Structure formats: structure tokens, C-alpha cells
Amino acid sequence: MFEGISISSRDKWQMHLWQSINGHCRWQLLFSTIRA
What we know:
Layout: H1 2-35
């Protein structure tokens, strides 16, 4: 039971981290296209 909870929380944390990295890359791409 505890293992399932820890795995689900870890997946949520990884998903949040991936989304934040994705958003950061998107902002950098947007700024680079504006400057170009």
C-alpha cells in the first residue's frame, strides 16, 4: 500500500518537474525568436 502511494507521488513530482522544464524551454524559444 505504501509503495503504491510513494510511486504515485514520485510520478506526480516527475511530471511537475518535466512540465516546468518544458515551460522554461518554451519561454527561451519564444525569447530567442523575438530577438532574432
